[in-house]
Amino acid sequence: MSTSCRVCGAADSEPHFGGITCRACAAFFRRYFHSKKSGISCTCETRFQNSHPCRECRIQKCLDAGMNPEKVQHKREKHLQKAPKQQNDMEVIEVTSSSSSGSQSPSSHSFILIPFQITSRDKSNISRVVSRWADVQGKRSMLYGKRLDEVTYYETCLATKNDVEIMLSVIEMIFPQLIELSTWDKNSLLRNFYPKWALLVAAIDFERNRAVFEGYCTTIVDYYGMVIKFYSQSMYDNCQIEPNEILRIFEPYHRYYAFDLALPICGKDFNAVEYMAVALMAFFDGAHTNISSECADLCHNVKNIVLRELRGYYADRNVEEMRFIETIDVLQLMQKGESKFQEELLVCEMNNVHIHDDYRLMIREHNY
Fold it and tell me: Tens digits of per-residue pLDDT, 118-159?
């Protein structure tokens, strides 16, 4: 079923320059960036009522619909420099470095304005996270200290907590603005990121060690035994429940994480750049609960930086636009998994499974 044009609302539309539009709007978009006209300004107030929007407003609708000037022709540097500098079309991006003075207030930082629609050719932020992530793999390998089929739920809580803190240290090296946030905002960011990272890193580790994982459970009996031990050995004394009851209550969560999350994510065959881009977008989510407006603005701006860098990464490799969309879709998949994660925490608490205090804070995060 065809969708309507996201610029003018026409019934027939198809992909053009990265957006879903009709052919007329696509032709207008192409002409606009081929034109040598300059000094374009909005004339809607001087036009007749019910007439079409002016060129400036129409091109803005094209950009809002996702149409990319870079796709009109390969070399757009000259035109990109002449992009309209309207405040409401720009993202304010902080550019201070870790060498900035510690007494500098957030409001006194240097800022640059970067058009949201422009594809970034600089992938330095994602690349540096990938490099730092590779550096901490030795530390991550020490998180469990035993085979993963032998760990308990509580041990997984502790390992995940430490893993999140390792990832936070990596992100802080690349984005020193985090250091200036209040303790409340930092803790809220961590609590919001905790379940997202637990789900994503499980898929990353599963893909990396798939053969090893599959060797743990060669039969359904092995699998059931692992699930039973995972929860029963984390239950408080005198609160044990029957193995069949453990399977009835908890096994569906394991099945969901494996078949609805880990395997679909692994099926996308992401590389390190794509995985770290998803991790950064999950961390810098302006929709996190219980963060200040300042923190939400920072998250919004940094997330847009990551989006631009990821789009530029794909553009440099002539990757189809659909790959970019599929990568962003993982965030929606993780959001669904997060709801299941929160549900499992509540079920664990009701069945006397020993969970870490930080997990309890996550349960109550939306009730603060």
Answer: 444 455 889 899 988 888 877 787 776 677 677 889 988 888
Copy the structure tokens of residue 251: 């096994």
The token duo for 277 is: 């881009």
Q: In CATH, what class is 14-83?
A: alpha beta
Picking from 220, 216, 224, 249, the residue whose alpha carbon sits closest to that of residue 235 is 249
Q: What CA–CA distance (Å, rounded) separates 62 from 52?
A: 14
Residue 143: what pLDDT? 73
How far apart (Å, rounded) are the C-alpha atoms in residues 77 and 121?
Answer: 11
Fold of 124-367: Retinoid X Receptor (1.10.565)
- Residue 14 pairs in a beta bridge with 21
- Tell me how far apart the alpha carbons of residues 350 and 113 are, in angstroms, rounded to a whole number: 50
Handedness of CA 78, 63, 177, 327 (dihedral sign): negative
Q: Which tens digit of pLDDT belongs to each residue from 100-120? A: 333 333 333 333 334 434 444
The SS3 of residue 292 is coil
List the structure tokens of 150: 């032998």
Residue 190 near residue 168 (C-beta atoms within 8 A): yes
